[in-house]
Amino acid sequence: MEEPWRPRVSMHRRSIRLRGHDYSRPGAYFITICATTHLFGRIRAGEMVHSRFGEVARECWKSIPDHFPHVRLDTFVVMPDHVHGILFLHGDGSRLSAIGRISAGSLGTIVRSFKSVVAARINHLRGTRFGGIWQRNYFDRIIRSDADLARARQYISDNPARWDRRRASKMTGGRVVKM
Fold this sequence. Notes:
Helix content is 34%, strand content 21%. The protein has 179 residues and is an alpha+beta fold. The chain has a single domain (27-171), classed as Alpha-Beta Plaits, CATH 3.30.70.1290. The strands form 2 sheets. The protein has a 4-stranded antiparallel β-sheet, sandwiched between helices. It is globular. The termini are far apart.
């Protein structure tokens, strides 16, 4: 009799969501969604210059409330290889709890829809039927106070300028070079 296959690594994905949190309930969320490459443009003099694919991502982000009326957008930025944004979920986007799963109107559904439409539009522009635009999953942080909200907003608005400083630091081996 043949032994059953027992992989060394679990074949189950572990969730990076906060255990027990209902992501369909009203709240504020700081979201980061990573692309597979520097697809959305580049930073020039501390400012983001979008490629046509970056414009697609930007327009799709701005249209989230058109498809999910219970969502209000706050500060966001489309960077060369990721998107940061703050979303407020208001009212009742779903009648079902979203603890441990994706339900209609939940944060997971919103992010999945955004990623899907951006990928479809970019692949159409590239003339391909499919292609890897996004890394798997996304990162979220639940905003719990006005101070958290202020820090998240500042982080997002400073992100393009920090990008230039990180690149300059890498090019000088981490040394500060005075000009």
